[in-house]
Amino acid sequence: MTSIEQNDLRVWFLDPEDAAVSKYARGHPNDLRWIQAGIRSGNVSLPKIKARLASTTFLDADEEARVRKQVDADSAWLETVKARASKP
Length: 88
What we know:
By secondary structure, the protein is mainly alpha-helical. The chain is 66% helix and 11% strand. The protein has one domain.
């Protein structure tokens, strides 16, 4: 969670990486597209997501394995995107 304070007001926001972990767990195609769009735009960090996974409690071992597999797939996808972008 992230907070912003101004005067006597404090507002709390869900970190994009926390939202992404939740979306990975849900696994809906729209959620996975949201995550990739966030990664591509720089608003979601895969290293931060990987760090959050260490403290995430999953529903069961199957959910955890599915999430980790998708994070690995998105890591490979990002490397492909970067390689394409670096070609002349």
